[in-house]
Known about the structure:
alpha/beta, Rossmann fold, seven-stranded mixed sheet, 40% helix, binds pyridoxal-5'-phosphate, pyridoxal phosphate binding
Amino acid sequence: MKKIILREDEMPTRWYNVIPDIPNGLEPPLDPETLQPVGPEKLAAVFPMGLLEQEMSQERFIDIPQEVLEIYKIWRPSPLVRAYKLEEALGTKAKIFFKNEGVSPVGSHKPNSAVPQAYYNKREGVKRLTTETGAGQWGSALSMAASRFGLECKVYMVRVSYDQKPYRKFIMQTFGAEVAASPSMDTRTGRAILARDPDTPGSLGIAISEALEDASAHDDTNYALGSVLNHVVLHQSITGLEAKKQMEIAGEYPDVIIGCCGGGSNFAGLMVPFIPDYLDGKKIEFIGYEPASCPSMTGGKLAYDSGDVAMMTPLLYMYTLGHDFVPPGIHAGGLRYHGMAPIVSALVRDGIVIPKAVHQMECFEAGILFAKTEGIIPAPETTHAIRGAIIEAMKDPKEPKTILFNFSGHGLIDMAAYDNYLNGKLSDYSYPQEQIDASLARLPKVG
Length: 447
Ligand SMILES: *Cc1c(COP(=O)(O)O)cnc(C)c1O
């Protein structure tokens, strides 16, 4: 069978929450001022209770609301595909499966969380959502979701992407969202940064600060985050729950599960539903691939850190490169974040997830091989997972192991990156350890 498709009535109706199954648990988020655990009251200023309950929940399974299931059905259940032609080209005995999240309306896994986030905000009377976006994948997902529920949406888009990658901006505007280049004149944070440095390219950290400030300043407005937080990982678990059923139909079970890691949500979403089996003694390797140019797990430190430059977010216990780390301009925009989801971080700490770093040139090469063999052009982020799957398949090409990876998105709106690669304009870049150490020296001092 080339691809395994579930019927709509076989789609999971509950998300899986891995938190109670993390062997050594999670550390609580801290208030950046008092350094005490933050209560839901404070977070309720920018998040709806429905999501805050999920953020802290100890329930293993949480019902997916009917309204969310109906919208999921636009593209879910997503196909599980066996990459026969890739296997053949590699000459490996390994079986390579991928979960194709590129079939969503905006071409990535991000709507899996954007839709429930818009739903819970709508249910609690919120009128408007703010968010940040780098290359625009999260911004387009949230714009789509907000439009489904009749919410206004304002997206602070990192200046360089706003200028150089306009197509996702047009997608957001098509769904009715307002898009501002960040830093903008619309917030105090943005105006202060522009006064100092009018030509700044902006950063994800600055855009988060602006979106948070906007949400805090308006009663009818909440903030939405596309990765990192526990509720995002919960929503993304739909991919792993479906994949588990599909692997069963294929008569296979994965020996290795792979994903690319920016904030960690697509990798975690595919992998966490397999954790209970792992804890029951099943042998599975979980490998998260991050870029060598933004190596939170392989080059950073497990510590409390802020999610943004202005230190407005609660401090999260996570692998981090430091909240003022400025990643280089690599093309996998969605992997340029200084921190890693606390859930993924805890699983690395507990020795369940193995983190590895790969360079962008080998990833593009893998992406092009995938395009030529499987016929789908992957997002630059996704090429990191593909490279990872190839590394696993080629360790011992005679070993008949089963590999499952998350195909987090297609690359049809990222063709400028491929153009640069094909015309020799890209090179590898490892972040110098001294600079990582310098930014880690500025971590908030906790305990
Ligand atoms: C945003 C994005 C990522 C990285 O985000 P995670 O939270 O780590 O999943 C990966 N792939 C694609 C296609 C993305 O849009």
